[in-house]
Design brief:
about 550 residues; alpha+beta; Dipeptide-binding Protein, domain 1; Dipeptide-binding Protein, domain 3; seven-stranded mixed sheet; five-stranded mixed sheet; 18 helices; about 30% helix; globular
């Protein structure tokens, strides 16, 4: 471990980097500091409690590690905190060998007395699973991923075999289980840190002052301004090549680009499509881009008013020219969605028929459903740019105008991002712009997570959609590892989705990451998050 004096020097350097991020000095003074212009505040710093990529960037991809990971830039599973695994012949028991000598961070006064072991894995999952667990209700006791993925019914037990072996027992086979262990909600936490905080009567700090095994330690978080991290020198993959990582919270995409151009940050999130031509032409700037594993969509609340009627949902879809919306909002940076799955996933159905723009047909369906004079509803738009939708407010205004032409009066509603997700999860909206970036490279992460009955009344299923026949198809797809068979089930599920239209797919956005030419070894992950553990800077 570094001495207290060297930690003080590191903190001073981090403060210098923040000043640079605000334009008060040249970053050349701190050559091993990377400033990331992020798009907003994280909703929280405990991945088990969150659903949004902004939070995952700031927590699970910095402070924590998972049992398994993807090889950078691919969907290939590789060891992380687990080094090997075996699956029983019936697909119900997964036995994982754990990496030895993995240290936890020493932070916020916590001095770990042991390295990572099986107790930490058991604690991580028991907190989510057991309502009687001492930490279950801390920070609200809501674990949206765990619930929406039906893990309360799927996961029979997580048990310690020995210090470096754990066993997961399932109630039924599940083809995606290993991939699920790469997901942010499954980030491994410290059971010893939790016990220490419980003794100190500071259990709430477990989620506010996070400690993990990841490549960076949290130094400070100033909401609306910045997060500061320092390299975790004893990280099991080796010390990160950058000493300090700063998230400069910058909600406006044009301001993010101005800061990158000025050298106040070295990498930015989610550029404005209108700025892309200038970004590509700018000296000293390079750009990575790839097709995104994401979907932007318009969720209809299937439990509220006229939207309970699928004829009304179809009419609202018919009123929209989705191709025109995508051209206007994304300016070449996305393709119009033809279904709920992005084309990058193997179960995508390119022949799925969704409603095409036909205002006359929309008026006819509204009249048939009893709304000849139209009706009023709320249309929710989130306030920040997301990888799947850079300008939700502008999209909402265009939808509002199109609906007005068929007699539907929409009032646009917005809230701060975290509050927006909470309220949508509770079903307070009529229609809401939402989106999803894939977590594990599997179709179930869209068709199951976003549309299952177990996800109702969570942010994962903002349509509040529950169709038992649809759920049965998803369950059948998970019960086999035969990809051809799984695809047949998913094709049937997508057809049922198109018939019910619980939400309207809008676009699949390209992932674009501009950065300084000084940045090296950054790779866009297969999922739409940012990871800095392997990044170097000149």
């Amino acid at each position: 471990m570094r001495s207290h004096a060297s930690l003080a020097r590191a903190a001073a350097t981090a403060l210098l980097a923040v000043g640079c991020a605000l334009g008060s000095c040249a970053l050349a003074d701190a050559p091993r500091t990377l400033v990331f212009c992020s798009e907003g505040d994280p909703v929280g710093l405990q991945p088990a409690l969150q659903t949004d990529g902004t939070s995952f960037d700031a927590s699970s991809r910095t402070i924590y590690d998972r049992l398994l990971d993807f090889r950078p830039g691919t969907a290939e599973l590789v060891p992380a905190l687990a080094t090997a695994w075996q699956v029983s012949a019936d697909g119900l028991v997964y036995t994982l060998q754990l990496r030895r000598d993995v240290p936890f961070q020493r932070n916020f006064g916590f001095q770990p007395t042991r390295t990572f072991d099986a107790d930490d894995v058991v604690f991580t999952f028991a907190r989510m699973a057991d309502s009687g667990h001492p930490y279950h209700a801390v920070s609200g006791g809501n674990y949206p991923y765990y619930a929406s993925m039906d893990l309360p019914r799927l996961l029979r037990a997580v048990s310690r075999v020995d210090d470096h072996t754990v066993r997961f027992e399932l109630t039924r086979p599940n083809a995606t289980f290993l991939s699920d262990l790469t997901m942010d909600f499954a980030s491994i936490v410290s059971a010893e840190y939790a016990a220490w905080l419980q003794r100190e009567r500071r259990m709430q700090d477990f989620d506010l002052k996070p400690v993990g095994t990841g490549p960076f330690e949290l130094v400070a978080y100033q909401p609306g301004s910045q997060l500061r991290f320092r390299a975790f020198a004893r990280h099991w993959r080796g010390r990160p090549a950058i000493d300090h990582l700063v998230f400069a919270i910058t909600p406006d995409a044009s301001v993010r680009w101005a800061r990158l151009r000025a050298g106040e940050c070295q990498l930015m999130a989610q550029p404005n499509p209108a700025d892309l031509r200038a970004i590509h032409a700018a000296p000293g700037i390079k750009v990575q881009r790839k097709p995104g594993m994401n979907v932007a969509y318009l969720a209809f609340n299937n439990e509220r008013g006229p939207l309970r009627d699928r004829r009304v949902r179809r009419a609202l879809a018919l009123a929209l020219d989705r191709d025109a919306l995508v051209r206007a909002i994304y300016q070449g940076g996305a393709v119009t969605a033809r279904g709920p799955l992005p084309p990058t996933l193997w179960a995508h159905d390119p022949l799925l028929a969704l409603p095409r723009h036909d205002p006359d047909a929309a008026r006819h369906l509204l009249a048939e459903a009893g709304y000849r004079q139209g009706f009023a509803l709320t249309l929710w738009a989130f306030p920040i740019s997301r990888p799947y939708l850079p300008a939700a407010r502008r999209m909402a205004e265009m939808i509002q105008a199109a609906w007005a032409r068929v007699g539907v009066r929409a009032r646009i509603v917005s809230y701060e991002w975290g509050e927006y997700l909470r309220r949508v999860g509770r079903g307070e909206h009529d229609a809401a712009l939402m989106g999803w970036s894939g977590d594990n490279g599997d179709p179930d992460n869209f068709l199951g997570t976003l549309l299952s009955c177990s996800g109702v009344h969570t942010p994962q299923n903002p349509a509040q959609y529950c169709n038992r026949a649809y759920d049965d198809l998803i369950a059948a797809a998970l019960a086999t590892t035969d990809q051809a068979a799984r695809r047949r089930f998913y094709l049937q599920a997508q057809q049922r989705f198109a018939d019910d239209l619980p939400w309207l797919p809008l676009a699949h956005a390209e992932v674009v990451v501009p950065m300084s030419a000084r940045v090296h070894d950054y790779v866009i992950p297969v999922i739409d998050v940012h990871a800095f553990g392997g990044v170097r800077i000149d």
